[in-house]
Amino acid sequence: MNLHLFGASTLVGETFFNLLEMEKTEFKSFLYSRNCNEHINLDLNHHEKFRNYSFGKDSIIVSFCPIWTLAKLIKYLHKNNKYFCEIKSIIVCSSSSSFTKKYSFSSFDKKLSSELNKSENTILDICKKSKISCVILQPSLIYGVYKSHKDKNISKLISLMRLMPVIILPKNSGKRQPIHAYELSKVTLYFLKKTLNYKNKYSQKLSIGGDNEFTYEELLEEIKKNLPTNDKAKKCKILKVNQKLFIILMIPTALISLKLFESVLRISTNLSGFNSVSQILKIKPSKLFFYRFL
Fold it and tell me: For residue 103, what pLDDT band results from cuts at 50, 70 and 90?
């Protein structure tokens, strides 16, 4: 059975393929990337290259590339590729921003949410019409390190703590539910295997986070705890102030960027309560925040 992995050179793409090799699955894997010469070099925006592209009977597509790029490709394949019927299931990684940023006052974030949601629905609709199983994962805060890849979430916080002697937080900061790239890969593989069963016709969106929820303060402290002893970020202090003072102190960021200002204000918002990895996989919850272990 052929497995076509788009976004193979991303953090989660690399982690997922490593998991496939560790599990010794019997898939014949085809890895696609426009940024890595080690993989099949195909730009998914060049749709004409896929007009007569055969994926192979009962093929599976797993994608960690931008979902709007995949949605346009799937739409093209559905209309123009006679081999599209060979695809058995599609597993796609989207983002929780699809719904968490829906009512943002930043035009950038609202547009992002709209684009994500539109792309998700396009893929789901086409899969329903074509009787293809489809699972769209909407992960929360992805973190982790693999080879030369670093996440764009926790890594940024670490860089900030290395630069700043003090970080100011509101006293009642919101909760976060970070998910490790390896955990997301395990969930992806879980649904991949489930959709192989002809009796299971999946068509769903699924929000997903890790097993642990942290307030912003707890998250920063947990990051510091997992860093090497001599890391500069360990010296960063956390100062908590009341909500009104916090907003007043952060107002200058609005002059730089409304997007930045809103991201600062979101520190007070709960972005948690998603389906956890242990709930989905039906395993014992992990108590480990394991940034340094991959």
Answer: confident
Cα 244 from chain centroid (whole Å): 32
Which contacts (CB < 8 Å, 24+ apart) does range 21-24 have? 23/189
Per-residue burial over 178-197, b = 16 or more CB atoms within 10 Å of its CB, e = otherwise: bbbbbbbbbbbbbbbeebee
Give pLDDT tens digits for 112-158. Answer: 999 999 999 999 999 999 999 999 999 999 998 888 788 888 888 99
Nearest CA-CA partner of 60 in 179, 202, 205, 209 = 202
Name the percent of the chain in helix, strand, coil, to the closest 5: 45, 20, 35
Nearest to 145 by CA among 2, 8, 284, 12: 12
Q: Closest Cα partner for 140 from 94, 75, 85?
A: 94
Closest CA to 84 of 50, 124, 118: 50
Here the tokens at position 40 are: 């099949």
pLDDT tens-digit series, residues 250-277: 999 888 888 888 888 889 899 999 999 9
Say whether 176 sits in a helix, a strand or coil: strand
The residues pairing with 28 across neighbouring beta strands, listed in sequence order, are 2
pTM of the model: 0.91
Amino acid at 255: L
What single DSSP character describes residue 148? T
d(CA 272, CA 110): 19
What percent of the chain clears pLDDT 70, i.e. is strictly above it? 94
